Every structure is written in structure tokens, then in C-alpha cells.
């Protein structure tokens, strides 16, 4: 027996079947699982190439949000209180802005660590994965009859010295990993409502 979502009625003009939507959601969930691995590797490799104090056991600055890229963490009760529409909208906003920020950090790293081709490649790959995930999320929203809300645009990164440049990149890499983890949880919840 198919489980229908409680807060997302199918739009009358949608031509996709429940099964097609379920397959798309599962494919998106698989992408987030893959991105969890790659985002962890990016953060680890980034920290490795920044020098002291990055990578030190006690280096754990509080993560700062950016325009269009808020902190993805919520209390369990607040997270469970979100509708599917709100979850999808928040993820779409984050993953539409992450490519801009990741590209900016890559440019900074090309100046700070010009010989680290693997790190640069990881930024390119991460940016492309974000674009793919954003497209998947928008497609799911369209299939479910959800009209995307306004998105806060990313702002250029303008750190004024080398340390803050590195710290800004650290924040972005951490937010990328955190948003991937949050998106995986959100889409996993959606797969239960649209089982394949």
C-alpha cells in the first residue's frame, strides 16, 4: 500500500506518477549519500592544507552563516515540525548558493595553495554535485506542485587577510558538509512517504 504525504497534495496538473516521483526522490537520496562522503573528504583535505591552527585538536571555531547559507542545524522538535515544503525550500536555497561560495573558496585556494590540484578538483566536483542536487530538489518540488519561494542570494567573499581567507573557506567547507548531512536526513524522511 502506498503512503501518501500528509502535507503535500499532488498538483492537479502533474503528469508524473507516484512511482516516478518516488524513484526521483530515491535517486536524490542516493546522491546525498554520495555527497556525504565527498563533503567529508573536502573538509579534511582543506584543513590539511591550511597550516596551523587549522587541523589542531583544539581548533573548533563556531561556524558562521553566510547570506543564503544559514546554519542547517535545528533542534529535533523544530526539525520534525517542518513541512516537506519548508524542508525542500531550505535545501534548495542552500544548494543554489553553495556553488557560488565553493567557487570563491577555490579561487582563494588557487592563490594560497596553487600546487594543490586535487584540492582544486574537489572544489570543482563539489560545486557540480551541488548544482545537480539543486536541480533534483527543484524537480521534486515541481512534481509535488510546490512553487519555490524567494531565495536569498549569495554574497561575494571579501576577507581582508590570509588567515580570514582560510577561516572563511573553513566555514564554507563545514557548511557544505553540514547542509549535505541535513539534506540527507530531509530526503530520507521524504522517501518514507514515497516508497519505491
UniProtKB/TrEMBL annotation:
This protein's UniProt keywords: Cytokine, Secreted
CC annotations in GO: CNTFR-CLCF1 complex; CRLF-CLCF1 complex; extracellular space
Keyword check for Secreted: yes
Membrane-spanning segments: none
BP terms from Gene Ontology: cell surface receptor signaling pathway via JAK-STAT; neuron development; positive regulation of B cell proliferation
Compartments (UniProt record): Secreted
GO molecular-function term, one example from the UniProt record: cytokine activity
Domain of life: Eukaryota
SUPFAM superfamilies: 4-helical cytokines
Family according to the record: Belongs to the IL-6 superfamily.
Protein's UniProt name: Cardiotrophin 1
Lineage: Eukaryota, Metazoa, Chordata, Craniata, Vertebrata
Gene name of the record: CTF1
